[in-house]
Amino acid sequence: MKGRGCGRSWSKNCPADTAGPPKRERAGARTGDVRYVCIAMEALDQLLMACHCQSINLFVESFLKMVAKLLESEKPNLQILGTNSFVKFANIEEDTPSYHRSYDFFVSRFSEMCHSSHDDLEIKTKIRMSGIKGLQGVVRKTVNDELQANIWDPQHMDKIVPSLLFNLQHVEEAESRSPSPLQATEKEKESPAELAERCLRELLGRAAYGNIKNAIKPVLIHLDNHSLWEPKVFAIRCFKIIMYSVQPQHSHLVIQQLLSHLDANSRSAATVRAGIVEVLSEAAVIAATGSVGPTVLEMFNTLLRQLRLSIDYALTGSYDGAISVGPKIIKEHEERMFQEAVIKTTGSFASTLPTYQRSEVMLFIMSKVPLPSLHHPMETGKTGENRNRLTQIMLLKSLLQVSIGFQCSNMLTALPSSFLDRLLSAALMEDAEIRLFVLEILISFIDRHGNRHKFSTISTLSDISVLKLKVDKCSRQDTVFMKKHSQQLYRHIYMSCKEETNVQKHYEALYSMLALISIELANEEVVVDLIRLVLAVQEIAHINEENLPAYNRCALYALGAAYLNLISQLTAVPAFCQHIHEVIETRQKEAPYLLPEDIFVERPRLSQSLDQVVIELLFRQSKISEVLGGSGYNSDRLCTPYIPQLTDEDRLSKRKSIGETISLQVEVESRNSPEKEERVPAEEITYETLKKAIVDSVAVEEQERERRRQVVEKFQKAPFEEIAAHCGARASLLQSKLNQIFEITIRPPPSPSGTITAAYGQPQNHSIPVYEMKFPDLCVY
Q: How far apart are CA 504 and CA 552, in angstroms?
């Protein structure tokens, strides 16, 4: 019965012999009829399925030898038949492992079938699909059995993974020539690419912690060998499959492999490095939703290192660091493309991190920015200056990408002193682009309610309610932050306004920063200080000690008008609003070039008669202090002009105006002292004075050193009698002084009977020796 059953079903289970008669038949095909081979294999399959688990090992060796013979055949239908039998065997769960069974041949043969190049497209597709199914069967049979051959060894992974990727690459070809859905069943409609993807997902999903590296390395090598980083579409697709397939706690291992591969390709073409970085960007975003672990700073460190290398390559024109004499082998536009890819990756990955990790990343990036300081000298020479500038710009761009969308309720944790000091020192650089980046970074930190875009245009709106600002009460943490750092922020805003190289974007950023501080961080004290600051900026344009161009002076006038118009409506003090509106109306009639509507346009209207600006066109500090003082604001503080304190940062920032001699007027006076007219004149401290003080201190140190040398020499060479006499005289002097001190301090307290009345009726205490004093009986023991 079984024989007849096998005979009836052979045509159903045996693949059609579509390849015609082979040139040379092997193994079972030598019998002369392929049909008998199909019947024999079906019998083996049924015996295998009916075999008990305890005795299956006795039968498997013979079965696998028969399958191997079929796979060695040149006839495609026999190869497919052997594969189908092996897949059935792979799905059987064995209770007792086999210690001597090897699958090396099957891995090699199935991988070879995955790369089939048969002339007939349909046959080629069937062979490739059989190869993929065979590999899937090998993985299922061996992956969970530690006693079997380790399928994760590099010798196996180097065959399995490239075979699957090879079929993933040809998805377009397979789709374009696949049969129509009306002519194919559901099972036949599956393409090699889809089957390979499913097999790859299953393989990676079964990978343990220690096997991830062996599974990912062949992917990287395959992408390198076939130059698949430059189009990067296939590479991104591969790593999306990988990231969504591996276990979440293993995703950081994939990121580490990509980072190591990026370092290994640091001298490759910029397009290749850019492709790796973009793949890293996609993978990192997926990994951040799971577990990134310790690779956060490692990833940013690698990216920043690659950014520095790219800058060096662009400057020198070669990968060895030496300046290329001949034609450049590196294309600068490709390096710029790579740099932008790194910056984009930095921002996209940081946006997925929690707040505390994002703060650490920003501190880390800021620590890498080369800034002039006493402890971190910068590179000199033209090449060094170019490298410093490009590095500063690229790192600040990266920091800006990280800071966009950053939300933190506590500004003290978002902007710690170590971070803020370095960031603000960059705000005093000569380079206008660097200063603009610093302002935009600060704005990103301060804007926590999405008001930034509402101040993108500088204007004097008569009603700011149309802006629909989101305003919250200043929190206690914000108040503490402003008490600690407000003067530092004001000083840098003031110094930035004095820059000659400012353009419209700088003034827009300054206006946004002033407005956002007023909304996010302001209390009454901050409002008063901001008004004083803006009035001091108006004074810069009015006095013009910096010899600013006409545009810069008009821009400062317009900036002050826009901000005072905003803050007057925020404070809602009628008299204050009236004064501001009166000055604005006067400017509209007589000097429209002092308003933002005429300055911050494509063709600004300027005036050369800025030295004749009358007082009616200015916002008067006395008037503002008067009207705000009546509403409870600190009028004394409002009357005091704002004067910034100059620090070492100004000297270290390579600014021309600060590189010159700075005279500070140091006055010690009391505002409420009745002796103002008798105060001591101010002492002028200049560079020469400081230099003289340093030289004098050096001379004093030299004298002290010489005196000590003489004393040591005297004790070494003088006679003993002379040294003894000298020390004796000093000892006698010391003893006399001690006796005087003892006489004054160690004197017994006066007794009650020792009080006498001296002349003029004043009581006088008379000391009695201790031995003459009489003590009560209770004190005697």
A: 9
